[in-house]
Structure formats: structure tokens, C-alpha cells
Description:
400 residues, 16-stranded antiparallel beta barrel, 5 helices, 51% strand, signal, Porin, mainly beta, 10% helix
Amino acid sequence: MKKMTKLIALFLSGLLLAPALVSANPEGDQVPESGTVAAKPPVTAEAPAAAQPQTTWEKILANLPKVSGYLQTGWNYTSNDKSSSSSFQAKRLRLLLDGKVAEKVDFRLQIEAFNGISGSTNGNGQKNIQVMDAFATWKIMPEFKVRVGQFFTPLGYENYDISPATLETVDFSNIVYRIACRNPYEYNLVDYGRDLGIMFMGDVFDSGKGFSYLHYDVAITNGSIPSKDDSNKSKDIYVSLTVRPVKYFNVKGTFNWGEYTSKKLEGGEGVGSGDYNPMTRYVVGAWYDNPRGLNLRAEYGHMKSRVNKADVVKENGAYVLAGWHWGKFLPIVRWDMYEDQVNKGTANNYNRILIGCTYSVFKNLKFQVNYGHFMYSGDAKKALGYDSSEQLQIMGLFKF
């Protein structure tokens, strides 16, 4: 109980300290998350200046790729009845390059410089560089676009519609880490939810109010570890639909099917055996997000594979997140759970309550404080030797 009290005190201290860390706004006008700009005092009207033709240098600069990125770094503390740890962390360092190949063809390259996936660190256990995205998108029309290369798959909100730079919490739910970013057959380790292939997508039924009523994604991918050739002849199929009846609310469902080769890699050993093990994944959810009010999202995910009438993979995950956009602050609470019905004695079987707050100092800087309480029962409790654990995270995210 004393340990819990100390953690809650640290959590509250982080919330109180965050606004004091920055006293000035280097960007001038404050841009809230709603995308609106603070009003300026009226300016006396003047005759418009004559348009000046672009110089050759200005034309060159206008056509150069746009460079952006972000750093997420801070402090992480975990504790249970058997052990505890405290460490400063560099969770993510992303570098993005966006450019135009032609009038309707865009290109994106994204590099992760703090990749800590098991088996992919160097000989000293240090994080290394990993290619995240490398794709081109041909925007034929709003209703039909084609994407080729290595891209994020449309499995759920958090893997497709949200990035670490826009996530309300420090970490994603296990729907991302275990279902969207992991293949139990191919490598059985947490990856980034990327794959090599081709995807067709579009927005149809324009509402005339700044959004479309329907978005679709249909992807054909290798179904193997990213940045590598496929290990068999079978391909993954993704079908995803997002229906948005009103501006701030939508419902999404994604189904994935594939056949996989069991492998043993340095980072993790795949389950089962053989080259064509079938597996299905799906994620369904609903999301209401008013940038000046309520943010409410829920998702459920399921992953299953049966071989010779036996469950080789059978996992479920769910979460409900609620928050409120309150000026520069976004306080949130989230309940999430995960259940591995094949490997029941691991820490992946839990219920968790998370409370946190994001403070957006200005457009490119935010601080996040998250406190999570994990609860274990049944086989997981027996195998771990404890029934709960705590986590406290204080992170800053710096964008450019």
C-alpha cells in the first residue's frame, strides 16, 4: 500500500510540474489540437502587394522533400512483489521524409532510430536503426488510391489511424502489440505492424461537410517479417471499412487472413511447424472524438489459428478509453485487457487500469504522465508469483 501511495504521489507531481517546464511559446500563435488558431487583433487594410515571381532557388526549395520527425523520451518505473526497475528511456526517435514523385504520386520514408525489438539490437543490446515505412501512394482520385511498398496495415485504429505522436497514452494497447504488430508463426516478437505489399484505398460518399461517410482499405501483403521477402507463396489479405455517419463519430472493422511458415529467429521462436499454417485476425471498434470535448474509443481484437483440430493460437484483447480535451490538457482513463487462451501463465494475461494526462505546451511539444495498475489472476498469477504490478511513465514528445 505504501508503494502504491508513493507512485500516486509521483504521478500527481508529474502533472503539476509539466506546465512549469516551458514558460514561452516559440511558435508565436498557439495552435490547439482542434487545428484552430488563436484570434489576432484586427489589422488596418492595405493595398495588396504585387505578386512576385518565384526565383529558380525558391522553385527548387518548394519541390524538395519535407523532413520531419519526433523524439519520445522520459522516465519509466515498474514494480511488483518480486522486483522493480527505474530507468530513463529513449522510446522512439522517428525521422520522416515526405516528397512528391509526380503530381498525383507521393512518397514516404520513415526511419526508427531507437528500434529495441528482441533479436534486432546490436551485440551490446543497444537499439538500432530500422526502416518503418517506404511506400509510394498514387492518388488517382479521392475514391481510389493505390499504395505500394512497406506500409502500416489497416488492422485497428491504433495501428492505422493513430501514431505515437498522436496517441493519448505513452504506449499502445496489446491489440497493437500482440495482434497487429506480431505474427506468432513467423517470428513471435513485437514488430511495428508493417508489411510489404499493395493496398487499394479511398474515401467515398462525400458529406460536403469536410468528411466522407465511408473509407475502405483492401491490402495484399507478404504476411512475413517486414523488410524481408515472403517465406512462402501465400499472401495476407486485409479488408477494412470505416463508416462515419457524423463528423466526430465512426465505426471501423478490419478482417485479416493469411498462411504462415513457422520460423525460429534470434528474437523469437514461432509456434507450430510447417509452411502454410492458417490464421485469422480481426479488430472492430467505435470512436467519438470532439477536439474540444469528449474523446471516447473502444476496440476488440481476436486472433486465432487451428491446426489438426487444435488451437495453436487463440488470443483476445479489448480496451475502452475516455478523455476530455480541456484546453492544453487531455486527462484520460483507460481499461484494457488481454487473454492468451493457449499460453495462460504469462504476463500477457491481465486486466489494467490506466490514468493519465497529456499537456500540450504548444503544437510540437507535449508531456505525458501515465500510471498503470496491472491485475493478474488464475494461471498467470500462479506462474508469476504475484497478483499485481505497477507502472509509472513520465514522457516528453518533441516534434519538428
